[in-house]
Write a structure and sequence with these properties.
By secondary structure, this protein is α+β, with helices and mostly antiparallel strands. It has 2 domains: about 25-170, Immunoglobulin-like; about 190-395, no CATH class. It has helices at about 5-10, 35-40, 130-135, 200-210, 225-240, 265-275, 280-290, 345-370, 370-375, 390-395; strands at about 25-30, 35, 70-75, 80-85, 90-100, 105-110, 120-125, 130, 140-150, 155-165, 170-175, 185, 245, 260-265, 275, 295-300, 305-310, 320, 385-390. Strands 2-10-9-5-6-8 form a 6-stranded mixed sheet, with no helix packed on it. The longest helix has 28 residues, at about 345-370.
């Protein structure tokens, strides 16, 4: 062998494959805004039902991921995750996410058996939220979020992000999935979380309504008489009018890039302030009606919300609209003052209240008729600003009432 050939052979080194660097990117469904109302009210909701999406929980019967879809691991119902890129197959991964004061260190450990060609996977640790802390947030505030991960025992540099914890009163309407707003996920049923049929104030309102003498009891649909149902609803309407509830259109909501949301007062806030906007008044009425077993709905139309309820418990029951912003249209005496009124004065007040009630029904029914086609549309192309939110259906889905603790932080 010639000296030149020997030199060339000795100098030639086969390239060695270098391990791909694993990178981590924080992921949040609502980007840098977090919504306590959504986190609390959906704590027990399983978005996918019997289907398992997470790779570490799938069975042979569960759907396989689409070709370019990033495989996910951990809690598929979570709000926070990390995207890892450059993962080798069957890597041992550990991910921890924490938020000062709101989320205890929440960890996922396991083997990542499926990744994309780029070695991508999304990891959702089971979030250990401090729900008591979330229930006290009445003003938005900055929060520190820490994302940590290791792959095959090698730590990835921590990622510290500043997010915003929104007020508990901020309710998500829909989440924008693109900049144009053409692709979105509908979350309008979260408004049902502000309907609280278990609130102690509901029983107080029902007691006051009985004192008026309009009805002798609240039996819901037991009488099978639509007229009886209407009188029960009117008795509650009259009691709220005697509480001095007035319409207020003040509902400032801090904008969000990724989420369309609406500020909603809790029931006790509306009662204490004797003020309610269209959503607040509808939530208030729906809370009381739900308590006595009357099926109620929050009806969303562009720029407005009103109440609807069924006159019976059957599928073919007539649905009635009620414009709750008219609650404050009458100046009538409080429940405590009724006993001091003459029979003529009582009758005059009841007539005025009932006249307003029937006008509110007329306006509500007109809007139900006007938007009937859109309200009945449950397709993916449905207008997100026109929604019929069934309180019983939301409860069946797992949307829980939010208990409104006052902020003591």
């Amino acid at each position: 062998m010639s000296p030149l050939l020997t030199f060339l052979l000795l100098s030639f080194v086969l390239p060695t494959s270098q391990p791909t660097e694993v990178t981590m990117e924080p992921w949040s469904y609502t980007e840098t805004d977090l919504y306590p109302s959504a986190i609390v009210s959906t704590a027990t909701v399983d978005w996918n039902g019997d289907d398992q999406i997470a790779e570490d929980k799938k069975t042979a019967d569960d759907p396989k991921p689409k070709k370019k879809e990033i495989p996910i691991y951990g809690d598929e119902n979570g709000w926070l995750a990390v995207d890892l890129t450059g993962l080798p197959k069957d890597a041992r991964v550990e991910v921890t996410i924490s938020i000062d004061g709101f989320l205890k260190p929440s960890t996922w450990k396991g083997k990542v058996t499926r990744v994309t060609k780029a070695g991508e996977a999304r990891i959702f640790p089971k979030a250990l939220w401090d729900y008591d802390a979330l229930l006290k947030v009445r003003q938005q505030r900055p929060i520190n979020v820490t994302f940590q991960a290791s792959v095959n025992g090698t730590p990835i540099p921590d990622d510290h992000e500043t997010y915003v914890m929104r007020s508990l009163n901020d309710c998500m309407f829909y989440v924008l999935m693109d900049e144009d707003g053409e692709d979105f996920d509908d979350f309008s049923w979260l408004f049902a979380a502000y309907v609280n049929e278990n609130h102690p104030e509901v029983d107080m309102i029902l007691k006051e309504a009985l004192k008026s003498g309009i009805v002798s009891d609240f039996s819901g649909y037991q009488s099978d008489d639509p007229k009886d149902v209407m009188m029960q609803v009117f008795a509650i309407w009259n009691a709220l009018q005697r509480r001095g509830i007035k319409y207020s259109d003040v509902s400032h909501t801090t904008p969000s890039k990724a989420v369309v949301c609406q500020t909603v007062r809790f029931m006790d806030d509306s009662v204490r302030a004797t003020q309610a906007n269209c959503v607040d008044g509808s939530v208030l009425m729906a809370s009381v009606l739900s308590k006595i077993g009357i099926t109620s709905y929050l009806v969303m139309i562009p720029g407005h919300c009103f109440l609807a309820f069924d006159l019976g418990d059957g599928e073919d029951a007539k649905r009635i609209g009620l414009e709750t912003t008219m609650l404050g249209n009458d100046e009538i005496k409080s429940v405590e003052q009724i006993a001091n009124l003459t029979e003529k004065a009582k009758l005059t007040e009841f007539k005025a209240s009932y006249k307003t009630f029937t006008s509110a029904v007329k306006i509500g029914n007109a809007n139900l008729k006007k938007y009937k086609e859109q309200l009945d549309d449950d397709s993916e192309e449905a207008d997100p600003d026109i929604q019929l939110i069934s309180i019983p259906d939301a409860r069946d889905l797992g949307i829980m009432p939010i208990s409104s603790l006052r902020d003591s932080r």
